[in-house]
């Protein structure tokens, strides 16, 4: 019989890019670890740069890389003294060939970090790294759970479809070279958590992972922090969106085209939580549409300031072409901001029924997006109804406590499967020794 897992688990939570401002992986790490600790479990985060923001009670082990993409000098050339191991040389060499090395090199480094700590943790939880080092960790005897937020194959396809030249397409194919490794590693992980039914279907279809390996655990929002602020006045015509990365998938260009249409009849403006990349089409689109005075970018601010910005917004929008879940959607809903979103990926699953908890439009359709934004801006009753219903939906379905509790169930499943497998192997070895003795 398999040994039952302990009541309070010791979890090593891995994230190769830890900061919440660098994407959803950092947000997931912060709040999942906090809630696991609140449930009585011990969590230690092993993280690469940019470093994570973690709550009291959560342990942290830095796993430093060369930090080759840091601001303000991305794609930098490190000094000779920064190279401490062959992994550092590998990381720099891969970057020089236009590849993205961090998932691989982080996984190799973290295997080294955990080599002498088998007695310190019950299991490992990988957050979207899927580097080859994870296979080594499993070979070392570690029980492993991993989270795959959505298939990166979608990002690759959308980036390639928006590439302006063959050179750019070639560069993108090289950049996404890590995908083959991640897909091969994911096939070997016994339990993969994903965040929506939409992501699960796409992972099965695009990455070849068996449906039985996947479990859907929706993520949450800190509803005590992301909340309505009655003391903050809404700014008429203020539209707000969040884009953790300026990539085609986030739909900023269609949103700018929609804003230009909305501004022909209203004094609307747009606040973007994020910053544009020099090589993207965003700056050119702002100039082409004469929107320089109507668009502002805000980055590197606290959650408290973001909540204030939501409080000032008359409507929030998620214009993405695809989302595996969408933290910005539930953050806006938790803040009581009426929401307009596309039907890309999991957004209908997250936002809820069109017209009841948010307005939904097709992706890459500036006209439909402009019409929906105009409806909310022009109809205070509709805006109030969406505001109340969105907050209620979040409280009912999307809390970090629920996410943590369900995640622990999958931890225990993996631990029991691992114990059963080891017991079976021990039994086979015993039978083999008995058989040899009888001969």
Can you offer a commentary on this structure?
It is a single chain. The chain has helices at residues 24-38, 86-96, 102-114, 133-139, 152-161, 166-175, 178-186, 197-207, 252-263, 282-288, 303-312, 327-334, 347-351, 366-378, 380-397, 400-438; strands spanning 10-15, 42-47, 59-62, 123-127, 144-147, 191-194, 214-216, 238-242, 269-273, 295-298, 315-318, 339-342, 359-361. The chain has 439 residues and is of the alpha/beta class. It folds into two domains: 10-220 and 400-429, Glycogen Phosphorylase B (Rossmann fold); 238-397, Rossmann fold (3-Layer(aba) Sandwich), CATH 3.40.50. The protein has a seven-stranded parallel β-sheet, with helices on both faces. Helix 1 packs across helix 16 (400-438) and helix 2 (86-96) runs antiparallel to helix 3. It is globular. The two termini are 29 Å apart. The mean pLDDT is 92.
Give the arrangement of secondary structure elements.
Layout: E1 10-15, H1 24-38, E2 42-47, E3 59-62, H2 86-96, H3 102-114, E4 123-127, H4 133-139, E5 144-147, H5 152-161, H6 166-175, H7 178-186, E6 191-194, H8 197-207, E7 214-216, E8 238-242, H9 252-263, E9 269-273, H10 282-288, E10 295-298, H11 303-312, E11 315-318, H12 327-334, E12 339-342, H13 347-351, E13 359-361, H14 366-378, H15 380-397, H16 400-438
Parallel strand pairs: 1-2, 1-4, 2-3, 4-5, 5-6, 6-7, 8-9, 8-11, 9-10, 11-12, 12-13
Helix pairs in contact: 1-16, 2-3, 3-4, 9-14, 12-15
